[in-house]
């Protein structure tokens, strides 16, 4: 294997958490049916010392993220989540025009735009140039870089230290965790706060969310592992919130360990206790996940085969990375899903990696009137069902694969 030691603590990795066979890069959409593409083993390991779940890193971040297919602003519910976050931070910390907010992996400016509207100074750090250009077109200052200690030191020299340093769903995308967290330590003002949101490993295991595993997600975090990682760099996690986003996420609040302004909240101890009771520090708990997912795979395929044997037409909704993991692991192709649709114009007219299922505009659903719509971004099911409620006109129904395959009418 390529990374033989844990990227958090350096311990040798011996225990497989979940092996999903081979898969292409989940966000590498194919322009032509005849285009060749690479596939890589998709295997995750669990560290016996710090309990970080991590995937083997076969491709560099530069290859995966420099031209990126994911634009955060296409989800209305996610934008609402971000607006609420900004209101929360403004109320909690009373930020003004003198405040510097820095977001790591700022994408298309989906969040910083709301701070900017309130007159707060903002800076985005985003490695994907095509996505960063969209943020810049909104007037959001953006540095096109991968975050780590070099960029943190450079920004500090320019006086760009952060009162609020935030990152949403970026921690999983970082191959060098220690350099990344060390960079946050450098860039954070003495009395500043870090907030990080990321999917919770406990919820992944509890709800069979195996499809959230793909090559660009290098790591999968429990709360106890994150607090350990931050402590290694003299950063203290003083508060935590449990969120519904992405199938169950957590938002941590951290500060310099030497900063006496923030007291550790009861929420920290409560979540650590919850994880301990669940078995997040028991290696045996992790070893049972492979069999659970193999059984789920068989149920999904049996379900789809029975519908197709009845002559039903099944279309997909969405072209998310998680959907590509599910499709490729289960062996789903055009024999099962006739096509899928997505709101992102960047994905329309392409084919899903591996399966070569074509991606169209959502208007295709009205033209073809499928019997079932298979929701691939199941974490956005409420938003998608509302947007596609018109399928009820011809008796259409929705299929959700996670936590188990089922129909929504």
UniProtKB/TrEMBL annotation:
Signal peptide extent: none
Question: Where on the tree of life does the source sit, at the highest rank?
Answer: Bacteria
Query: Mind telling me which InterPro entries this protein's record contains?
Result: Methyltransf_Zn-bd_dom_put (IPR013630), Methyltransf_Zn-bd_dom_put_sf (IPR038576), MeTrfase_14 (IPR013691), SAM-dependent_MTases_sf (IPR029063)
MF-aspect GO terms: methyltransferase activity
Q: Which SUPFAM superfamilies match?
A: S-adenosyl-L-methionine-dependent methyltransferases
- Domain C-methyltransferase, first and last residues per copy: 245-403
The keyword Transferase appears for this protein: yes
- Residues in Methyltransferase putative zinc binding domain copies: 6-65
Q: Which UniProt keywords apply?
A: Methyltransferase, Transferase
A GO biological process held by the record: methylation
Cross-referenced Pfam families: Methyltransf_13 (PF08421), Methyltransf_14 (PF08484), Methyltransf_23 (PF13489)
State what protein this is by name: Methyltransferase domain-containing protein
Its source organism is Paenibacillus farraposensis
